[in-house]
Amino acid sequence: MSTREDGPESPLVESKSDLVEYIAAGGKPREQWRIGTEHEKFAFDTRDLRPIPYEGPAGVRALLEGMINRFGWEAIREGDNIIALKRAPGVPGGGVSLEPGGQIELSGEPLASVHETCKEVAEHRRQVLEIGRDLGIGFMGLGFQPKWTLAETPMMPKGRYKIMKEYMPKVGTLGLDMMFRSCTIQVNLDFADEADMRRKMRVGLALQPLATALFANSPFTEGRTNGFQSFRSEIWRNTDPERTGMLDFAFEEGFGYESYVDYALEVPMYFVYRNGRYIDATRRSFRDFMEGKLDVLPGERPTIADWADHLSTLFPEVRMKRFLEMRGADGGPWGRVCALPAFWVGLLYDEGALDEACELIRSWGSEERQRLRDEVPVGGLRARIGGRSAREVAGDVLAIAKRGLAARGNIDRMGSDERQYLVSLERVVETGETSADRLVRLFHTTWGGDIDRAFVEEAF
Length: 460
Prior knowledge:
This protein is of the alpha+beta class. It has helices spanning 16-24, 60-71, 114-135, 159-171, 175-181, 194-214, 231-237, 257-266, 286-290, 304-311, 339-348, 351-361, 366-379, 390-408, 423-431, 435-444, 454-457, and strands at residues 35-45, 74-78, 81-86, 95-98, 104-107, 137-140, 184-189, 220-221, 224-225, 244-245, 271-274, 277-280, 315-316, 318-320, 324-330, 384-385, 388-389.
């Protein structure tokens, strides 16, 4: 989740057109399109496989301080607590932030190729493993924590998380599991203009369940199999229906920036950030805020920074800010992190591939798209749409993505293009065995039912 810092005074929102213009300003010419990759991972104590606390000699603060002292990161603080890391201006590396349960996230900077993304991910992995070895901290990639209960998972000291923790049980049954026990990989991609955004949004929404199936990696809960390919994906179906989902309105005639703004205006807020603290604004809409009707800030009206904050608290399958966020994939081993940007860049950043993807989903109606979304958490590649299995469709989608990556022609030092990062996904389609399938198989055979083996098998 995004980390807020105090900065220059933000302009007031005068009208809805300011909100539309804020999003529209993200449009860029093709040569400026970039790839921003985010990934989360669980940090654990290597001695007893328990979650690490924030404080203590082998805690989250010590990990972040180690990154600062050894690798030159700069601290972002909330009060006395380090809650994120940033690079000095001009220094590459992106940012490091904390998810509610202590999951460590790399928020990569916008890069020109998947090759650069992989280089960034590898350097981040080197750094956290080096500090982790000194402190006795390990890291693992899964979509859902396989062992820990909610009660034993610590909460990181960020004000927004306290508000969210209190609000989640009021609107869904699994929101706290989302916050404290799940991990994801995301990729953030640019659009040229409203028409380009519309096509990418529709393809992203329709094919997001395919990405979920390909990256399914959360088959355990509290030491046992849970019957899901992607329990993380199921969690999102039971988190908060007002701010999640497949956004059917994106497929309606005339969909554009304003349509998304109208949706966001009605979604209840979480908070307003003022003077270094988060003020609970749950159950109030941003429209109420624009009309000066927030009882927690009577008569006050929002700034553009407040709008940016609010957009970051919406959780549909594809989220729009000044770019599009693809949100469907489970967290996984570090070697799979590069596969997600390759998948979506191949589909969305080449015009021919995007045309093919649009044609593939053209006949899918709202009910079919939703049925696929509902079936994938349990069925994975066995879910069906348009009379075909998700596995069959995924094969077609990967072929399109490969053509798109080939057309981009980005070659690394070894002479290979970006198609190399799809090999692990092609193997999933060829064998029909997802990461979730493989882990369940190991659990019932080699591991002898010992979930602790996951901390070794899925370690970074």
